[in-house]
Write a structure and sequence with these properties.
The chain is 23% helix and 41% strand. The chain is α+β, with helices and mostly antiparallel strands. Strands 1-2-3-7-6 form a five-stranded mixed barrel. A five-stranded mixed beta barrel has the order 8-9-10-13-12.
Length: 260
């Protein structure tokens, strides 16, 4: 009887152990699958966010108003027509009798020469305007680029433009300098606030008999929005070529040793 009892107990307990051990691997597989799905979802969300950041960038442009409606405008530039989104939050100003005056958006008219600053959406090919400045009808030079050098002694800048030019900009006592930030909008600034790497929009008058040089009447400093380096390279600064350096060195024999 004892042997039989032992056999019965063995038959009853063996399946129980099997039942306990079998499902132990199932939660691990489920957890691994869930973690993998969450990781893939995170990758997709990160990729989407990066794409959004790349498609929307700060931008300044100059052109002439071609058409205008309650919510949008078309601005003709040198390269193409740009669609501008207009909202109630857009700031509009113009220099009238030597003073900058804030205006209502309704004052914007067809054929007005304007400078627009805002965020450009590449996917929609749309510039969402944040600030509009109505320019004077007088023919002046307008350049947009990145500051490559600041000369504190001569009170001048070297600005590299998107088309590969290096423009020398003279700062005059009458030059009006403003800066734009997302927190404060347009604020008064000065020469000391201009820094290498800043994107600027400059309006000025060409200096007679001097190529690629203007006398600035207005400067709008947009800050370092392109991630440009904090120091200019010699290739961007006029008269900084190796040949010019050798001519200025009293002992040409030591120049090769100093050249990087």
């Amino acid at each position: 009887m004892c042997i039989a009892c032992i056999g019965i107990v063995s038959m009853l307990t063996t399946p129980a152990f099997a039942a306990v051990s079998t499902p132990s691997a199932t939660p691990k597989a489920a957890n691994t699958s869930t973690a993998s799905a969450q990781l893939e979802e995170l990758k997709v969300r990160l990729a989407t966010k990066v794409a959004e950041l790349r498609s929307v960038v700060k931008r300044a442009m100059f052109g002439t108003v071609k058409t205008i409606s309650l919510t949008s405008a078309s601005v003709e530039t040198k390269t193409k027509d740009i669609k501008i989104e207009l909202t109630d939050d857009v700031s509009v100003s113009q220099v009238i009798s030597g003073k900058r005056v804030n205006l209502d958006l309704e004052k914007l008219e067809v054929k007005d020469p304007i400078t627009v600053f805002g965020t450009y959406d590449e996917a929609l090919d749309l510039l969402k305007a944040q600030y509009i400045f109505i320019e004077s009808a007088i023919q002046t030079s307008r350049i947009t680029g990145v500051i490559a050098d600041v000369d504190s002694e001569e009170f001048s800048l070297i600005v590299n433009t998107a088309d590969g030019r290096s423009i020398t900009v003279d700062i005059e006592k009458s030059t009006k300098t403003t800066a734009w930030t997302a927190a404060s909008g347009i604020t008064k600034a000065g020469f000391s606030k201009l820094a290498v790497g800043d994107s600027v929009h400059i309006v000025g008058i060409p200096v007679p008999k001097k190529e690629n040089r203007i006398s600035a009447s207005r400067i709008l400093d947009l800050g370092n929005i392109t991630g440009a380096a904090g120091a200019p390279t010699t290739t961007l600064i006029p008269d900084a070529s190796p040949s010019a350096t050798i001519k200025a060195t009293p002992k040409p024999t030591v120049t090769p040793a100093e050249t990087p």
